[in-house]
Amino acid sequence: MKTIVLHGSPRKNGNSDTLARHFLQGLETNGSHEIKHFFANDLNIRPCQGCDSCADSLSGYCVIQDDMQEIYRSFIEAEIVVFATPMYWGYMTAQLKAVVDRMEAKDHWILGRRLACHHVPHG
Ligand SMILES: Cc1cc2nc3c(=O)[nH]c(=O)nc-3n(C[C@H](O)[C@H](O)[C@H](O)COP(=O)(O)O)c2cc1C
């Protein structure tokens, strides 16, 4: 199954990455998966501008040409989408929030997907 992992932490191999790794190991025991990782902190992703171009055109793509375009392409093919993020002030990190906001262009795709969310709190 095609799986994408959206990593929210700026800390590589930190707690949320470790949790995601264990989750993926569990997945692999149920068959092989083609897994693609996106580390939001390493990507060039502009915040959503709220222009509604994606809704108006129904294109499913955002007009901003940045690394989000690659995430859209992988997201369309993915059957499982994993959100792996620490909790920052009670929510996902700003890096991952930017990705999720830009998913507005794909809100109709999110329905029917298998989503796995790992929020790692302190302690
Ligand atoms: C700016 C900032 C805000 C945080 N806010 C929270 C919070 O609201 N609740 C919480 O339980 N932990 C909070 N933490 C702690 C992290 O969620 C925690 O250390 C987490 O395990 C780090 O995950 P990582 O190793 O994947 O980066 C915060 C940490 C930082 C740096």
Radius of gyration from CA coordinates? 14 Å
In terms of per-residue confidence, which ranges show pLDDT below 50 for 5 or more consecutive residues?
none
CATH class equals Alpha Beta
- Kindly give the count of domains: 1
Shape field? globular
**CATH architectural group:** 3-Layer(aba) Sandwich
Beta fraction? 15-25%
Bound molecules: flavin mononucleotide
Query: Structural class of the helix and strand makeup?
Result: alpha/beta
Number of helices: 5
Largest β sheet strand count, sense and barrel closure: 4 strands, parallel
Look up the CATH topology.
Rossmann fold
Q: Which whole number gives the mean pLDDT?
A: 89
How are the strands ordered across the major sheet? 2-1-3-4
Summarize the structure in words.
The protein is α/β, with parallel strands linked by helices. The chain has one domain (2-120): Rossmann fold (3-Layer(aba) Sandwich), CATH 3.40.50.360. 34% of the residues lie in helices and 21% in strands. It contains five helices and four strands; from the N terminus they run E-H-E-H-H-E-H-H-E. A four-stranded parallel sheet has the order 2-1-3-4, with helices on both faces. The longest helix is centred in the N-terminal third of the chain and has 14 residues, at 15-28. Flavin mononucleotide (FMN) binds at residues 9, 11, 14-17, 86-90, 120-122.
